[in-house]
Design goal:
Order of helices and strands of chain A: HHHEEHHHHHHHHHH
Oligomer: heterodimer
Number of strands of chain B: 10
Structural class of chain A: mainly alpha
CATH superfamily of the largest domain in chain B: Periplasmic binding protein-like II
Number of helices of chain B: 11
CATH topology of chain A: MetI-like fold
Strand content of chain A: under 5%
Shape of chain B: elongated
Radius of gyration of chain B: 24 Å
Order of helices and strands of chain B: HHEHEHEHEHEHEHEEHEHHE
CATH architecture of chain A: Orthogonal Bundle
Number of domains of chain A: 1
Structural class of chain B: alpha/beta
Number of helices of chain A: 13
Radius of gyration of chain A: 27 Å
CATH class of chain A: Mainly Alpha
Largest sheet of chain B: 10 strands, mixed
CATH topology of the largest domain in chain B: D-Maltodextrin-Binding Protein, domain 2
Strand order of the largest sheet of chain A: 1-2
Distance between the termini of chain B: 81 Å
Number of domains of chain B: 2
CATH superfamily of chain A: MetI-like
Number of strands of chain A: 2
Largest sheet of chain A: 2 strands, antiparallel
Distance between the termini of chain A: 50 Å
Strand content of chain B: 15-25%
Largest interface: A-B, 52 and 48 residues
């Protein structure tokens, strides 16, 4: 240490001139500018990527809307794109499938995920948390195809035998396995934010005479709501965008079931339609463009959901600020 | 400072978007393809036998045969590099037309629009029928139903027959399983069974033969269809119109749901080239044995 200081003698500090030459000044200014521009480019790259994805999908979807308009897609449940004489492109059943499977998954995954996050951060001993959390996060690394195999080979026969359902690949199966897949994401993100609330708030709450339940429900969770909502949004995006799993688990029947809330019937999602049909369509055909239209609907849907939750989030933030 | 940075970024984004949009526009308005594809497209390159590279792309039904062909082929011609993709008949046709592969494997014949875009690029696709495939109706082994007619299968898939007891079986709803609407198997099935009628909306879709097999073998009330090669003891194949699907009936064409499987090349391959050897491999004894081992039926008896 002391040697290092000695080796840079006082003389060393004066090897650079005190006044910069105009050239060096300009070079330094340029370097700062270039650095700033490069950083902005990197930051802008993701924005550009999103714009480009939107652009390319829209470019391939527009011929479909030009030829068939919006009305049929938004009003009909009949999706028969390959029919030789009169193809039909009603997307309602597909939208219903995506929504029902996602909502079903959230109903299962959100309470489970948030409860698990609270348990991990506040209830079990620290050592247990340190062991359990990595395992839960490992669950998030399991590829969706593996979940799909589980859904088809294990869950579907089980549902048929135990629940007496005629078919085991249905909306319930897909929701359940999607919930299984989204839960680790929710737990991990929510737990981080609940953990980050910190000791002081908790101790202050206890000092005011609150019980542990009151502290958790009225102090810790409201304080961590930003992260908890972010966790739910991430889980939802995972569920609505998931493809392989729902393609395997949901049965892909293109229908709105007779009572619309009947989850024991099979449904088809937007994602599964694109994935399942893209491989064998002739490029440039109406069916090909219709699949891009489906992708566009999905993209608009998830963007809308994202914006909506963002809006809710900022509202919640404001009301939380008003309370404080 | 920040606003100026933002402006720079936005300008950059617009330049990028503009350039891509221009490129995209150019691509859609120009009838011919981008220069890279156009350069590689001009018709069958006569690849010399040694050190040649062969790209194969296409159907997931014909894929298993092609993969085995490639394995056998490599032993005979160790210097030839062959890559074999299984993306789907439509993708195979698109790849052949774009010059991304020399051989497309297809479980259906090329569609008129695919032919059209090939001809517009000065290419002439040639079909090589290499094997026969029978589409079999399968049910759970415990199902007491012994035979079906095409008309009955038609009524099951349009929802007119919804319970097995209407066919003399148990009192259970029929779980109707179909392949995805873009698969070659689906097209063959609808061609032979559905005619102009649509499948009703409770039909479930699976995206591969093994999955159809898995759904039917684990569901007591299910009916589905797979290629002859995927019928085993875990499912029961039913005779259709009195003809049991088998190698004999499929080869003879007496089984009602029989289709040929194809390789497509761009023009007839130059004699002596690697493509030619590959496209005639199905005629050799080894090729026919491979086709039989995969559960399909050779076009000719040897």
């Amino acid at each position: 240490m002391s040697q290092a200081i000695q080796s840079e003698g006082p003389a060393a500090e004066f090897t650079r001139p005190l006044l910069l030459t105009p050239g060096a000044d300009r070079a330094g200014w340029l370097a700062a500018k270039a650095g700033r521009a490069a950083l902005l480019l990197v930051a802008g790259a993701s924005v550009v990527a999103v714009l480009l994805i939107f652009f390319f999908i829209a470019r391939e979807a527009i011929p479909f809307f030009q030829e068939r308009g919006l009305g049929e897609a938004a009003s009909s449940t009949h999706w028969y794109p390959e029919d030789a004489t009169a193809p039909q492109f009603g997307m309602l059943a597909l939208i219903y499938g995506s929504v029902s499977v996602t909502v079903g998954a959230l109903i299962l995954a959100v309470p489970l995920g948030i409860l698990a996050a609270v348990v991990l951060s506040d209830i079990v001993p620290f050592a247990v948390r340190q062991c359990v959390k990595p395992v839960i996060e490992l669950l998030a690394a399991i590829p969706s195809v593996a979940f799909g195999v589980f859904a088809v080979k294990v869950l579907a026969p089980l549902m048929q035998e135990r629940l007496g359902l005629p078919t085991g690949t249905n909306a319930l199966n897909a929701s359940f396995v999607l919930a299984l897949m989204a839960t680790p994401t929710i737990v991990s993100v929510a737990e981080d934010s609940i953990w980050a609330v910190g000791r002081e708030l908790r101790e202050a709450s206890y000092a005011c005479g609150a019980t542990r339940a009151e502290t958790l429900l009225k102090v810790v969770l409201p304080a961590a709501h930003n992260g908890v909502i972010a966790a739910i949004v991430l889980g939802m995006m995972r569920a609505i965008g998931e493809t392989m799993l729902v393609w395997m688990a949901s049965g892909n029947a293109c229908q709105v079931p007779a009572p619309w809330w009947d989850l024991s019937q099979s449904v088809r999602t937007l994602t599964a339609t694109v994935a399942g049909e893209m491989g064998e369509t002739a490029r440039g055909s109406l069916h090909y463009h219709s699949l891009f239209a489906v992708a566009l609907v999905l993209l608009v849907f998830s963007l809308g959901l994202n914006l909506l939750t963002e809006r809710l989030l900022s509202k919640a933030r404001k009301s939380a600020g008003a309370h404080a | 400072m920040i606003t100026r940075g933002l402006a720079v970024t936005l300008a950059a984004a617009f330049v990028v978007l503009g350039v891509t949009a221009y490129w995209a526009q150019a691509q859609t308005t120009r009838p011919s393809m981008p220069p890279a594809a156009a350069a590689s497209a001009p018709a069958p390159k006569a690849a010399p036998m040694d050190k040649a590279a062969l790209q194969i792309d296409g159907s997931t039904t014909v894929g298993p045969i092609a993969v085995e062909f490639v394995e056998a082929f490599k032993k005979l011609h160790p210097d030839v590099t062959i890559t074999c993709k299984q993306t789907g008949s439509g993708d195979g046709a698109a790849a052949l037309i774009d010059g991304r592969c020399q051989i497309a494997t297809m479980s259906r014949f090329m569609k008129p629009e695919e032919f059209k875009s090939a001809v517009e690029k000065g290419e002439m696709p040639v079909a090589h029928a290499i094997a026969m495939d029978g589409v079999c109706m399968i049910v759970h082994p415990s199902n007491p139903v012994k035979a079906l007619t095409i008309a009955q299968v038609h009524d099951i898939y349009t929802g007119k027959i919804a319970n097995w007891k209407e066919l003399g079986g148990m009192d259970a709803p029929i779980v109707v399983v179909s392949r995805d609407t873009s698969s070659g198997t689906y097209e063959t099935f609808t061609h032979f069974v559905m005619g102009k009628d649509k499948l009703f909306d409770k039909v479930e879709y699976v995206n591969a033969n093994p999955q159809a097999h898995a759904r039917v073998s684990t569901t007591a009330g299910a009916i589905g269809y797979v290629g002859l090669g995927f019928v085993d003891t875990k499912v029961k194949a039913l005779p259709i119109d009195g003809v049991m699907p088998s190698r004999k009936t499929v080869q003879a064409g007496t089984y009602p749901m029989t289709r040929p499987l194809f390789l497509f090349t761009n023009g007839y391959p130059k004699l002596g080239s690697v493509e030619h050897a590959f496209c005639t491999f199905y005629l050799t004894e080894q090729g026919q044995k491979i086709i039989e081992a995969k559960g399909f039926v050779p076009v000719t008896s040897y």
